[in-house]
């Protein structure tokens, strides 16, 4: 993997040089991990004119360091690790000072990640440096995943499917949303996940289908829609799956009608995930199905999004999104409808964009999408 990280940093170096920046400071945690591997919490990466340096503060409970860090003083394929004594200093400020000491006259920073106060501190620490905006250069590098990244996401999807499948075999009636969410997260870890990819959603009855619902003490009852959305993190990479079920012997007619509409919309979105397809087109074909079924006023602003080291990353599948899909880009397709006071339906999958010649989109989450009565 050291060669992979080195190649990623080299691409970013080239982009910065072409843009006229002698050095770059990467502070967003997911971006630092993408370029270096596992590093202590709060660490930053300096791509300098002389050396690449990971700057961190002492953290007693820090995870094991990436093996792809060097303690040497000069540039090598691996960045040097500089640990600041104590926990009060700012690694970003120390990195800016180091860039100036190494002769840089400009420093590209991730302005979208920095607070105003931190940006001012960088300028004060190294007043000779011209600060430029690195913008979302690393996020753009992260869009297309390599085989190793997709393999980690594939395992994360399997872990999420496994935890969900086991829960569905247990008795659900009478248990609270909060209890079920905690059990799912425990099962994820028991099966080998680093942890949940995001706070698990368990939404029953009138809560079902509500995006981002925080589990409550409401108990599952017969006749409820039950929406579950969970994700696993594996070696830093994430994957999500969401399903909606009916509690009881059989669903009501309105539940079948709503479920069928959301399922058809989700299938249309999945089938649209081909290289060259515009982001907004994927959103449009998904949204059209639900609008035609009479649920247009209940739709959310986003049909799906990219996923990887973060659960919500580029690209965005929205009506105004600019850009087109590339092969090997993992995205979610997650249409949902929530009817206030009644409940609703969400169906979420994580897929990898593949050309038709390779079989089309690769589904990473395979829990059945049949409307199950539990």
UniProtKB/TrEMBL annotation:
Q: Which CDD domains match?
A: APP-like (cd01092)
Q: Which residues form the Creatinase N-terminal domain?
A: 8-144
Q: What is its EC number?
A: 3.4.-.-
Entry's Pfam families? Creatinase_N, Peptidase_M24
Root EC class: hydrolase
Lineage, top-rank taxon, reads: Bacteria
Protein's UniProt keywords contain tRNA-binding: no
Residue intervals of the Peptidase M24 domain: 152-354
Keywords in alphabetical order: Aminopeptidase, Hydrolase, Protease
What InterPro entries does the database record attribute to this sequence?
Creatin/AminoP/Spt16_N, Creatinase/aminopeptidase-like, Creatinase_N, Pept_M24, Peptidase_M24B
* GO MF term list: aminopeptidase activity
Protein name per UniProt:
Aminopeptidase P family protein
Source organism of this protein record: Streptomyces antimycoticus
């Amino acid at each position: 993997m050291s060669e992979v990280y080195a190649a990623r940093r080299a691409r970013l170096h080239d982009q910065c040089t072409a843009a006229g920046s002698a050095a770059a400071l990467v502070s967003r945690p997911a971006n630092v991990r993408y370029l270096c591997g596992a590093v202590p919490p709060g660490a930053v990466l300096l791509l300098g004119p002389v050396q690449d340096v990971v700057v961190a503060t002492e953290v007693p409970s820090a995870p094991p360091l990436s093996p792809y860090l060097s303690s040497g003083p000069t540039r090598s394929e691996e960045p040097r690790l500089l640990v600041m004594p104590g926990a009060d200093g700012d690694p970003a400020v120390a990195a800016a000072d180091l860039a100036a000491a190494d002769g840089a006259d400009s420093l590209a920073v991730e302005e979208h990640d920095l607070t105003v106060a931190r940006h001012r501190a960088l300028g004060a620490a190294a007043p000779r440096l011209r600060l430029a905006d690195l913008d979302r250069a690393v996020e753009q590098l992260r869009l297309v995943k390599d085989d190793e990244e997709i393999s980690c996401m594939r395992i994360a999807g399997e872990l999420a499917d496994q935890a969900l499948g086991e829960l569905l075999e247990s008795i659900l009636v009478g248990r609270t949303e909060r209890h079920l969410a905690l059990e799912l997260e425990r099962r994820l870890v028991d099966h080998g996940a680093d942890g949940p990819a995001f706070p698990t959603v368990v939404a029953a009855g009138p809560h079902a289908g509500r995006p981002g619902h925080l589990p409550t003490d409401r108990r599952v009852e017969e006749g409820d829609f039950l929406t579950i959305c969970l994700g696993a993190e594996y070696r830093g990479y994430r994957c999500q799956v969401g399903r909606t079920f009916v509690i009881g012997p059989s669903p009501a007619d309105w539940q079948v009608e709503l479920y069928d509409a959301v399922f058809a919309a989700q299938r249309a979105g999945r089938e649209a995930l081909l290289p060259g397809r515009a982001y907004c087109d994927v959103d449009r074909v998904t949204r059209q199905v639900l609008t035609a079924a009479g649920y247009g006023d209940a739709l959310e602003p986003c049909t799906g999004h990219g996923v990887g080291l973060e659960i919500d990353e580029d690209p965005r599948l929205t009506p105004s999104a600019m850009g087109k899909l590339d092969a090997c880009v993992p995205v979610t397709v997650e249409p949902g409808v929530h009817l206030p006071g009644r409940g609703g339906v969400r169906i979420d999958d994580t897929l990898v964009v593949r050309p038709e010649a390779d079989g089309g989109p690769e589904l990473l989450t395979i829990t059945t999408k049949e409307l199950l009565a539990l």
